[in-house]
Protein: DUF4153 domain-containing protein
Organism: Mycolicibacterium litorale
Amino acid sequence: MDVDEALESQIGQWRGYVERHNAISAADADEMEDHLRSQISDLSAAGLTGDEAFLVAVKRMGNMGGISREFAREHSDRLWKQLVLPPAGPDGVGRPPTRELSVVLALAVAAAVAVKVGFAVLGEQDFARNAALFVLPFLTGYFAWKRRMSPRAVAVLLVPYAAAAAVLNGYPFVPEGSTEVIAAIHTPIVLWFAVGLAYVGGRWRSDRRRMDFIRFTGEWIVYLALLAFGGGVLVGLTVGAFEALDVDVEWVIQDWVMPFGVAGAMVIAAWLVEAKQNVVENIAPVLTRVFTPLTILMLLVLLVAFAAAGSVVGVDRNLLILMDLILVLVLGLVLYAISARDPHLPPDLFDRLQLVLVVSALAVDLLMLVAMATRIAEFGVTPNKVTALGLNLVLLVNLTWSARLMVGFLRGRRGFSAAEQWQTRYLPVFGLWAAAVVAVIPPLFDFA
């Protein structure tokens, strides 16, 4: 490879890195590349070699995080327009993505109708157990359509749904028993991985695509919460207005608005995340910056409270459940912080806060394991205890290795990418654990 070819290759790699930052459009990248080439030309004329000129010019351009923020400030009007306007077509005129929006609306309505029909046919208890089967298939179908998956791949996506339906309706659950509730809670977790398989277009072995799905999950939860909040305010105002007119509309809200609103919002939220990926900052990673220090404070206060109590033997069962939910929240914060970080940057204060968060969560997890082991020894084994114990063990492995990798990164012994790869490659463990809970725990306890 001659000098010109090597330089073109380096510029190509640099441009690829630039275009991965969503604040920078293709036109922006063209402008930056022109500036880079001009810098290289000037430096080469001053006597530097091609490699030397390239390195100096890139250094002068600055890091991508700073460039992204600069473009956000410079083009704030454009970024705000991206929130409400479709991207421009090749001729520069906005072309509404009517086909995709039509598909999304059709799927949202279909999910709502499925929920309504399912509730009417199955009744409250059976529908509650099968609720995930009436919404998530439409979300999976949206991504399968968007990623243009082959019929064979789509057939593979149907397997977990068929298996879940067979287990949920074939097992002789004791009505309202513990194993029925456990299966109903963990089935959506299992099927969310089917959604993930569609989201990545079948490329589940790709670490990058798995991390994309983690980012999507966080953004989807945030958008769903925003839709729920906005919908709740609208419904409350509507009910209040009709009550002032002495008109009862609560039955309409309960029988029609709620089923259609909840089911439809799950599909609409996914479309919003997909449609607005070009905004300079995603929401979930920003929230991790806010809630990480608050969560650290909460965990430290809890550890002090446990220390003051002097024993974890008498810990209330509800507290154990809440602590497990807190640990899941911690895992989410860690995942989204990793997903938002530039792996090429050196360690900073937030990385140290992440380590404190993980170590604090690890200490809480160990306390919960001791408390659960003590309760099992004293009161015996139950489905809930075994399920909680399994979750804590899965989290223990994840948090322990995460702490080790973070310490190595902060000491300069390993790159940040090791922590990212660990999380993406550990992700299937959560799906396998949830599947085992749904399929194995009920028969072990005679479906009670």
Notes: Confidence is low (pLDDT under 50) at residues 71-95.
